[in-house]
Amino acid sequence: MPNLYNVPLQNGIQRTLANTLNAGEVSTITFATSVSSVLQASTSIPGTLVIDRVYSNGNLTPSLTEYISFTGVSGSTVTGLVRGLAGTTDIAHSIGAIVEFVPDVTWADAINDTFTVGHNADGTHKSTAFASLVSVNLVNSSLDTFTFQSGFSTVSGATQGSMLTFNAGTITNLLVGGIDKSLSVSSTASGLLPTWDSVYLHKLHRQGSNATNYVSGGSVNYLETDVIFQSGAIDCVGMTTAGSVKTITFPKAYTQIPMVWLQFYDATNSHYDVVGNLRSPTRTGFTIINSQGGIGSSSIYLWFALGK
What is the pLDDT of residues 91-102, one digit of tens each? Predict the structure, then answer.
């Protein structure tokens, strides 16, 4: 894994060795004067130095040059050494050898290697750099496609029953089964679970005579990909006599008139019966009219609605 290197706190820093640095020594380098105010390093971002790049007279000494990294700075020492960097050799260096802290191929390679993990040479992001932002599995019924519109990848052929996890915060403009939806992500004990206005999207194979009207009769097959299922249990308080009326409001309004089914449950005799008529369905609800008197107020009407 590429790792950046720390830079000195001043330009043109030069020191000399206070002791011989033996080949294979990886614990400490000691200088003739303090370096704690001009260097920085840590185990996650080491510093680098070069020994014997030049003699004291300024002549280059390539056969003696060695690049070394360090992870700690204290007083006149650096610690946590890695020897022989940038193609140089781990060799011995004498007392008084010149040590420099200058830009070099070690720093440049580290910057290049770290940058190119997530970027192309022209500075644009690699497509794989976003793979860790989102992990997608579907929680409901066999959606054919699951497409992020903002550069995320598409998941096809999803299977029912798998869980959905996110670590990307709030994501908007999510295309699911051809329907563009705004997705909000909320945290739960088991991870991040997405909802679409608290209603999950489902597929429905439907027969009728109109692509958008759910209550038109016919035998044409339609595949609906944005379907809302709702149901309720309504008490019969105030509905005990024939002709009594009660208005039901759906928890969530539909975009068109849905299909609605009504069933009466006689709580006294523990059986289902037909003693109510469903009237005036709209996008927001419907009306129940009692067609038979003498029912107990503890009985209930059960309803189920399906639509878009």
Answer: 999 999 999 998
